[in-house]
């Protein structure tokens, strides 16, 4: 909907920022945005309005629509008045083509497309219900005009067509939403919104928008709205986007009953059995599918599974009905073959379905073309002409797809592919699973991602270590050795592209589950891509196949999540303060799984999302995450760089985005020769390494004695708050790590020890500001020595038991090494405490 024309004032190169003031590039500031936080801040002085706002917090479209109508009622007094004046006015109603604004249900039916009719009807009903809520809540805050349904629908349409959707958040960005949409002409595959994210960076302070194409001076500046079909653009934006491979047309696959030709009794039994299988996997009988001009399916997995079930005979469907899991009924080798090389039966099914869909339309392509050629006054008003344009575009896609399928069908017939198969379920697994093949496939995948800089070679080291990265050329400290395109990473944003992830996260929030939103989004993302129903379609499959395998007991994983209950690892850890954190970590993850399992109890996903797999996903996320912009990311290849401290001067690992925001850049933290293993210094103490990574370093200048202390109940009141802040204690169970070479840390330990042993005495001694500069009091030293001696005694007693049996288990050996290191640190701290005056 080209209401505005934005021209570039100076030459614009791809990836430069759009917005320019006085020759300097600027970003859009967050306080100009419209989202819940900024609206709450704007209305903070109006308690009654804030109460209304809180009731709409869970529905962002309703929230933003209400905000616009309330602020528009203020006229010039509204802070956003200049922005509202720039938006299309209510008088432009007839120029918008969205079915949301159609005058009648008959106009919606004129779309002739089942998917669009269903979506449009649902959106119209949602909008009317939202309007009723708006009138009830905001009647006294807006003008009578703004209470009308038509005005509400128009404003909701503006929100739908202009708001950015980033990481599950809907945001109105003044001036940022002024650019008209047009595909950039780049031929590429659907990438779950990653391409859009490269050029739209939402941060804590605002948003940066970058050019996604070259634009000459004086020409209109367009941007790519994302990899969406016209089902999205037509309904929510009010226009038809030119197709660059992401559009598709809906058609309905034949019902199960059409496949069976035997007597009526047998037919009922077999069709009922197939229907039960469909119910288990949440697929409808005769489901809707969507196909592009080139014959590519929007959801090939769904069509592949349905085609397999459709063609099963009575014996096969009986076996499938009693299968305990989805993978027994539809084994990976079956889905792999159906998705990569659709055979005779699947192509035939699709081709017949597309033909029937074209014949089913009430009007032909020729009829619709004739209607659109007529003068405006000849065509019925109220959106009918817009509906004709949409349905014509669907028919043209199906016509082209039919021609492609017919050609494929002829090729399959000539080649005899799957044509004579009587047992489509019993297919051979053709993909090798050995380590060398997995590595080769991953390397091929990396090569296709076009890393701007990659000076690494991946090699297998051992079962305990896994893979390592080696320099393909000499690297100097501070030199870029790996630049990873952001779109290759698994992120919160890519997680949100999954309907299942979004729905599951929403259900968890509704259930009141106490889980970290961003962490759970990434966990669900990893689980679905690795183990889910569409795992063989995953764009990250070559990367996920490289991650440590989950064997029967997780014995090849170092994470404490896989320590056996009452097993040797936990026994070996006894006496160490780290035991408290390990127990809490294991309990926290299992609690999160219980919450997730409760949500998925009646779902087919419950069959593949097991507790062991959930533990595996947590172990992967906690041991491999790369951080930037205060968020976790799983970054292929970069997360395979192992941890090691080569010298006390070895700089800590740091990854940041380049100036374009499109690449995660990592510089060498040391000098490496060609063929050297490239390593990074994570700069963490060994208790963190053992807790989240499952290893310890022999040489680690960041290591220290770990103390897990509990603040006594008598110190948990307001009187002690300043003291706790000074000690940097922010919870009733505090973890502190003390290096014997850090005199300030030892002094802090002394004070903390006194607080734990005698809170009143600590309050008396430390309430005076001068206490921080005086020498340690005898009570402090005595309390600290007691704290240290308790731990030394525990470790030394349990050490004798831990060392009594020989083992080659790398997890147990890591724990033993950690215990010995802790004893050494504690002895050094004890000596320093005794030396204090």
Structural write-up:
The chain has 837 residues and is of the alpha+beta class. It has five domains: 1-26 and 173-224, no CATH class; 34-172, no CATH class; 249-415, set domain protein methyltransferase, domain 2 (Alpha-Beta Complex), CATH 3.90.1420; 490-634, no CATH class; 705-835, Alpha-Beta Complex (set domain protein methyltransferase, domain 2), CATH 3.90.1420. 45% of the residues lie in helices and 9% in strands. It is built from 31 helices and 19 strands. Strands 10-13-17-16 form a four-stranded antiparallel beta sheet, with no helix packed on it. The protein has a three-stranded antiparallel beta sheet with strand order 3-7-6. Residues 1-27, 377-381 and 417-434 have low confidence and may be disordered. GO terms for molecular function: protein-lysine N-methyltransferase activity.
CATH topology of the largest domain: set domain protein methyltransferase, domain 2
Give the termini separation.
79 Å
- Mean pLDDT across all amino acids: 83
Radius of gyration: 32 Å
Helix amount: 40-55%
GO molecular function: protein-lysine N-methyltransferase activity
Keywords: Methyltransferase, S-adenosyl-L-methionine, Transferase
Pfam families: Rubis-subs-bind (PF09273)
InterPro entries: Rubisco_LSMT_subst-bd (IPR015353), Rubisco_LSMT_subst-bd_sf (IPR036464), SET_dom_sf (IPR046341), SETD3_SETD6_MTase (IPR050600)
């Amino acid at each position: 909907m080209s209401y505005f024309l934005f021209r570039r004032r100076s030459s614009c190169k791809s990836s430069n920022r759009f917005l320019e003031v006085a020759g300097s590039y600027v970003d859009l500031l967050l306080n100009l945005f419209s989202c819940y936080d900024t609206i709450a801040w704007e209305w903070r002085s109006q308690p009654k309005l804030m109460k209304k706002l809180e009731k709409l917090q869970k529905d962002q479209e309703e929230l933003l629509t209400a905000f616009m109508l309330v602020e528009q009622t203020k006229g010039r007094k509204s802070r956003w008045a200049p922005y509202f004046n720039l938006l299309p006015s209510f008088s432009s109603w007839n120029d918008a083509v969205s079915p949301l604004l159609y005058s009648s249900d008959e106009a919606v039916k004129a779309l002739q497309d089942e998917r669009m009719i269903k979506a449009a009807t649902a959106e119209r009903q949602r909008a009317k219900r939202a309007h009723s809520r708006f009138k009830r809540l905001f009647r006294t805050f807006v003008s009578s005009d703004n209470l009308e349904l038509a005005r509400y629908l128009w404003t909701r349409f503006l929100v739908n067509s202009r708001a950015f959707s980033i990481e599950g958040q809907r945001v109105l960005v003044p001036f940022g939403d002024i650019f008209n949409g047009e595909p950039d002409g780049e031929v590429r595959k659907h990438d779950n919104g990653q391409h859009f994210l490269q050029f739209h960076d939402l941060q804590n302070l605002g948003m940066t928008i970058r050019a996604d194409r070259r634009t000459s001076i004086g020409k209109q500046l367009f941007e790519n709205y994302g990899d969406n079909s016209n089902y999205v653009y037509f309904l929510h934006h009010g226009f038809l986007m030119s197709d660059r491979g992401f559009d598709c047309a809906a058609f309905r696959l034949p019902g199960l009953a059409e496949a069976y030709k035997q007597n009526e009794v047998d037919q009922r039994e077999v069709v009922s059995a197939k229907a039960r299988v469909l119910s288990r996997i949440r697929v409808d009988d005769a489901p809707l599918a969507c196909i592009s001009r080139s014959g590519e399916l929007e959801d090939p997995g769904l069509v592949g599974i349905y085609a397999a079930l459709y063609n099963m005979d009575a014996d096969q469907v009986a076996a499938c009905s009693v299968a305990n899991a989805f993978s027994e009924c539809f084994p990976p080798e079956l889905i792999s073959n159906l998705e990569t090389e659709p055979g005779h039966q699947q192509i035939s099914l699709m081709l017949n379905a597309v033909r029937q869909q074209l014949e089913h339309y009430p009007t032909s392509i020729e009829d619709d073309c004739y209607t659109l050629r007529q003068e405006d006054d000849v065509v019925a008003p109220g959106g009918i002409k817009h509906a004709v344009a949409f349905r014509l575009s669907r028919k043209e896609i199906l016509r082209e797809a039919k021609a492609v399928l017919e050609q494929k069908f002829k090729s399959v017939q000539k080649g005899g592919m799957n044509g004579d198969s009587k047992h489509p379920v019993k297919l051979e697994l053709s993909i090798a699973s050995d380590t060398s093949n997995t590595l080769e496939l991953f390397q091929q995948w990396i090569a296709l991602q076009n890393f701007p800089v990659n000076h690494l070679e991946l090699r297998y080291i051992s079962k305990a270590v896994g893979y390592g990265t080696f320099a393909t050329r000499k690297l100097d400290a501070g030199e870029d050795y790996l630049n990873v395109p952001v779109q290759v990473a698994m992120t919160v944003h890519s997680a949100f592209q999954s309907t299942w992830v979004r729905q599951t996260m929403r259900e968890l929030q509704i259930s009141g589950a106490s889980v970290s939103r961003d962490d759970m989004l990434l966990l669900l993302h990893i689980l679905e891509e690795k183990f889910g129903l569409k795992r063989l379609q995953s764009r990250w499959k070559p990367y996920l196949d490289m991650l440590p395998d989950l064997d029967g007991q997780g014995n090849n994983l170092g994470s404490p999540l896989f320590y056996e209950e009452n097993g040797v690892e936990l026994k070996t850890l006894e006496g160490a303060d780290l035991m408290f954190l390990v127990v809490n970590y294991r309990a926290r993850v299992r609690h999160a799984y219980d919450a997730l399992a409760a949500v998925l109890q009646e779902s087919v996903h419950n069959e593949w999302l097991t507790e062991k797999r959930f533990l595996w996903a947590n172990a992967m996320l906690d041991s491999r995450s790369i951080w930037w912009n205060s968020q976790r990311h799983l970054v292929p290849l970069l997360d395979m760089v192992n941890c090691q401290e080569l010298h006390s001067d070895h700089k800590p690992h740091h990854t940041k985005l380049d100036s374009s925001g499109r690449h995660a850049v990592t510089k060498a933290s040391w000098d490496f020769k060609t063929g050297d293993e490239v390593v990074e210094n994570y700069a963490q103490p060994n208790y963190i390494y053992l807790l989240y990574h499952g290893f310890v370093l022999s040489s680690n200048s960041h290591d220290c004695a770990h103390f897990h202390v509990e603040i006594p109940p008598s110190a948990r009141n307001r009187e002690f708050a300043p003291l706790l802040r000074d000690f940097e204690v922010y919870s009733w169970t505090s973890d502190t790590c003390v290096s014997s070479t850090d005199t300030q840390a030892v002094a802090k330990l002394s004070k903390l020890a006194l607080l734990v042993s005698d809170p009143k005495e600590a309050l008396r001694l430390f309430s005076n500001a001068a206490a921080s500069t005086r020498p340690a009091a005898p009570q402090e030293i005595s309390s600290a020595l007691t704290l240290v001696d308790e731990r030394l005694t525990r470790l030394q007693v349990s050490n004798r038991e831990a060392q009594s049996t020989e083992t080659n288990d790398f997890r147990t050996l890591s724990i033993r090494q950690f215990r010995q290191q802790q004893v050494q640190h504690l002895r050094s701290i004890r000596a320093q405490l005794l030396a204090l005056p």
